[in-house]
Amino acid sequence: MALLEVNNLVTEFHTEAGVAKALDNVSFTLERGKVLGIVGESGSGKSVTAFSLMNLVEKPGRIAGGEILFNGENLRNASVKRWSQLRGDRIAMVFQDPMMSLNPVMRIGAQLGETIAIHRKVSRAEINEQVCAALKRVGIPAPVERMRAYPHELSGGMRQRVAIANAIVNSPDLIIADEPTTALDVTIQAQILYEMKNLARASGTALIWITHDISVVKDLADELCVMYAGRIIERGPVAEIIRNPLHPYTRGLIDSLPQAENHGKRLYSIPGATPPLLSLPPGCTFAPRCSRATGECHKIPPVFKLEGREYRCFHPLA
Amino acid sequence: MRLLLRRYFKSRVGTIAAVFLLLLVAIAVAAPFIAPQDPYDLTKVSIMEAERAPGSASSDQKMTYLLGTDGAGRDMLSAILYGLRISLGIGVASALVALAIGTSIGLISAYFGGKVDAILMRIVDVQLSVPAILVALVLLAVLGQGVDKTLMALVLVQWAIFARNVRGSALVERNKEYIEAAVGQGLPARRIMFRHVLPNCLAPLIVTTTNQMANAITLEATMSFLGIGLPQTKPSLGLLISNGFDYMLSNQYWISVFPGIALVLLVVVVSLVGDQLRIVLNPKLDA
Question: pLDDT per residue over B116-138, tens digit each?
Fold first, then answer.
């Protein structure tokens, strides 16, 4: 049984201007200990996916359909109590902005300790020991001293490590990381990616890594979901997708990466812009920007399957 | 913390106010030990000593009435010291109780939002749209006099101000990512409200609390002056002023004026400390 199975998840936002379908029939599975990358532009539904999985979608948004099977348990029916048991213990999340995701008036040690204390009955000394171990695992030097520090005393990279330590402190089954390296320097980003990969491998934790930068997940993820305007338009093993994308949008994303052999040439960019969620084109949402679009693309493309890969396109590239 | 204190004492007015406030609190607490006379002890108070002018000696020559005596022969200085104690005590106690109630309601309102927020805030609106003194008057007229009833009236007119204030700052904190992260840690709502949201709203709350203390002291004095607040057995500063009012026209100014000065001093000092705290705790005003 897969650790996480998401079937036809729909999340809507009811605004005064109408209903915005932020997630439209999103489905994927994630095995224990694997890393799933989710890439897409701003507004494609990556973060909403993360928030939906954590049941953190707030009004005016709501999960309107589908199921989230976590260890076989459908979380769509989970109570508030069940959610607070799961969150921070079995499923943890790392947020985008490390400057904002730590409580400014609590010491690091107290914040991490709270995550343990709320889920397990252990002594103060044991909590401190576990917090210290978690900080050490994410590569924070002098963890004992750092536990007494307030967030503002640490750099951005350090804070994101603390946030990651907070996520791993209870050894969850699943960590959802919502663009955790976007706000960091490239060098720190590489370090954190490397450490996250080791952590996931060492502890058998499954990881969902959300990013707008396909090159970030290239070496990290096992599987990749490409999202566009609320739909997963392509899904499959990461290496195959990058070598041989099926959806024209994925092709565009890969082509717009700067590469050494294209030095000095103008960088490719996909013509047009992401459509607003309130006025999506009918059928394939990418069709207006797509050079391969035909009349057929006015229908919503179903999920096509090909050798363990999935895509939503009537005119795939292969 | 140390930095805040240093910034606080940069201002001369703030420093003087803080020193005076500490002094007044010390006097109020120590009143039974430093007052020349126990104004409640009827065996010590003699009607024969009534209406002595400030500075005159008692008939047995044992003590001097520095601030005179009132119509019942009480030493005014002693009465003021004890009155200060009562006024300050009632003001602080009511502000703190209102703080506890108002903060909880404000936090709940901000945290849960939606209908809960709408209902609670409309109650606050109603409460704030009626003048405080009127609410207190009506309530005390219905309930009657007494320390507990005065406290209740003061809390009732004050909690809404705290609730509105806390809700405002809590709403700002509520939408920050670290609260979402706290929910993501699996913390229960109550813990998030009190351990994560509240500590981040403390700065404006401290300022409101000091200002409300000054407010409560004046309001209590007003009610006591009107004769509906505290009973005669618990003479606060307001009641002392009221008692002396009858003697004003017969030139015995001291019975009203000295408690009045004490009241003004107390309220001004508390307000000044509150103002200075606001400057210190608001980083935006730091120029």
Answer: 999 999 999 999 898 888 888 88
The predicted model gives A202-210 an average pLDDT of 89
In angstroms, rounded to a whole number, what is the distance separating the alpha carbons of residues A9 and A48?
11
Q: Give the start-to-end residue ranges of the domains of chain A.
A: 4-90+172-270+302-311, 101-171
Tokens 């707030």 belong to residue: A58
Provide the number of CB pairs (under 8 Å) joining chain A to chain B.
67
% of chain A at pLDDT higher than 70: 100
- Domain total of chain B: 1
CB A96 within 8 A of CB A56: no
CB contact under 8 A, A118 and B200: no
Residue span of the structural domain in which B70 resides: 2-285
Question: Is the ipTM above a cut-off of 0.95?
Answer: no
Which CATH number is B66's domain given?
1.10.3720.10
Report the pLDDT averaged over residues A37-56: 90
Set of chain A residues whose Cβ sits within 8 Å of the Cβ of B181: 93, 95, 101-102, 163, 166
What are B's interface residues with A at a Cβ cutoff of 8 A?
Answer: 113-114, 176-178, 180-188, 191, 195-196, 199-200
The rounded Cα B48 to chain-centroid distance in angstroms is: 35
As a CATH number, domain A4-90+172-270+302-311 is 3.40.50.300
Global pTM reads: 0.79
Give the C-alpha separation, A293 to A302, whole Å.
15
A89 to chain B, any CB pair closer than 8 A? The answer is yes
What single string gives the DSSP state of each residue in B40-82?
Answer: T-TTT--GGGTTPPTTEEPTTSS-EETT-B-TT--BHHHHHHH
pLDDT at B67 over 80: no
For residue range B72-116, what is the model confidence (pLDDT) as tens digits? 767 788 888 888 888 888 889 999 999 999 999 999 999 988 899
E strand segments, A71-200: 73-74, 91-94, 174-178
Rounded distance between C-alpha atoms, residue A212 and residue B26, angstroms: 63
Q: Tell which residue, A165, A224, A156, has the closest CA to residue A185.
A: A156
